Amino acid sequence: MTRLHLFDLDGTLLYGSAAPVEISQQLGVEREIQELERAFAAQELAPGQFAVRACALWSELTDQVVDRAFAGAPWLAGIREVWAGIREQGEHCAVISLSPDFFVRRLLDWGADAVHASRWPAPG
Questions:
Q1: 3-state DSSP assignment of residue 35
Q2: Is Chloroplast included in the keywords of this UniProt record (predicted)?
């Protein structure tokens, strides 16, 4: 029987952070995203409401900004090696997240077999 190993992104693979926080830091809107994160955690915002408001903050978002956010994020040490070991055993790994799919998809290049994330508008 083949096993599937599931990983969560925000606060797990991204140690102590979240994709929207990393993106917002690159755009200089950290304070604003922290308030949205607080409201979301307090269940004052549904996921869709959070996404709409975050997108409004990210009017200057480009693929290059996402690349910088991804590269500079505080990733869990050794995750690529862990995924390589999983694949060597004939098993699979997937990442799940409420974060933007355009950020999470980059983990496919790191060795995740699949990613499932929230659909957000692509960066301009």
A1: helix
A2: no
Residue 5: strand, helix, or coil: strand
Q: What is the domain count for the chain? A: 1
**Mean pLDDT across the stretch 1-25?**
95
Is 113 within the bounds of a domain? yes
Answer whether residue 53 is part of any domain: yes
Q: What is the CATH number of the domain that holds 110?
A: 3.40.50.1000
Give the start-end residues of each E strand in 9-108: 92-100
- pTM of the model as a whole: 0.92
When pLDDT is cut at 50, 70 and 90, the band that residue 2 belongs to is confident
- What's the domain range around 58? 4-118
Task: For residue 28, give the amino acid letter.
Answer: G
| Cα 37 from Cα 12, distance rounded (Å) | 16
> Each residue of 67-80: b (16+ CB within 10 Å) or e?
ebbbeebebeeebe
